[in-house]
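User: Could you walk me through two proteins back to back? I'd like the raw sequence and the structure tokens for each, with a short line separating them so I can tell where one ends and the next begins.

Assistant: Of course. Protein one, sequence then structure:
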Amino acid sequence: MSDGEGRGGLGEAGVGFRRLEESDFPLLLEWLLLPHVREWWDEGEHTIEMVREAYGPEPGVSRFIGLLSDPDRRFPVPFGFFQYYRIDKETVGIDQFIGVPELVGKGLGTTAVRRFSEMIFGEIAPSRITLDPHPDNRRAIRCCEKAGFRHLKTETVANGEPAYLMELTRDAGEC
């Protein structure tokens, strides 16, 4: 765990990550069914079988549960889902969401995206990290801007939806 960004709210929280395990699938399903997640992360019908198929081991994809240290608890509390994957030799793509509704809009997303990016730069050293929220998801876009990501272009992705492509370069990611 590392300390957060120190700007008040949950931005000061200790955020860490652990590998997603099959025992996390019921929690992931619970999060995927919540309106604030489903609005931007809707993959059709959500069942435990769908979660097992969509989020089980996949070559080239590394998946994690975000953990929030809580001084009132002995162990870190799961708060979100994070994944990264190689796009090419120099580029890694990431996807993420906060699953706990009470933690949305508290600064945790910015800290978590920043810490996740730092972990990726440290572990596999890409030149850049990209992500692509929906252009209407202003909260996610602002969160990623505060974490250092910059807009590249808006485009249509494989599923036919628009995407607001953003990137963080290794030099910009050194916090």
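----
Protein two, same layout:
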Amino acid sequence: MSIAHLLEDFVPRSGGGDSRQLMSDVALEEERLESFEKGYSAGWEDALAAQAREGEQLKADLVDGIEKLNFSYHDALQQLFEKVEPVFEVLTRAVLPEAIAEAFGPQIVEELKQMSRTGAEVPLVLSVPTGTSAAIQPVLEASGFTELTLTEDETLGPAQASLRLGNTAREVDGAGVLEAIRDAVDTFIYQTKEDIRHG
């Protein structure tokens, strides 16, 4: 934009061919104020637009960070679970059955001791699974239980026994305990897989 209209023209006029007019001081001040207002408004609008763009970028970065964090958490959980699941399988399929089998004899002896404290003259009857009486007999003799009747019952499963003293009966069910533990572990594994799959 030319500023020629703001300067006084000292060139002599010849016949009115020049159509330029000089601005008054008031008009000049009004134009300055109008220009200032336009510049101020444009700057304000630019600042608001820049702030909005920056806010949108911050939101996008935050969402991206949360998604990465969420993925990292689920990825870590998945990897951890992949390492732990075989341990649970070995525990419930190999270690616990052996531990229950080893504790089966001592558990029967403990139950027999509790039942024999009643002092009744009624004989103790111990029923064990078919084929296990030969293994249990030495444990009973070593514990001093020679005056009891040892029978095999084909309805009993591994790590199960039935103790009777007159009308009182107790059940030893290591297999039931093992099955309950296996069910709990299987439920945990299933639920964890579902939680990982569904986030």
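Residues 59 and 65 are 10 Å apart (CA to CA).

Let me know if you want the two compared in more detail.
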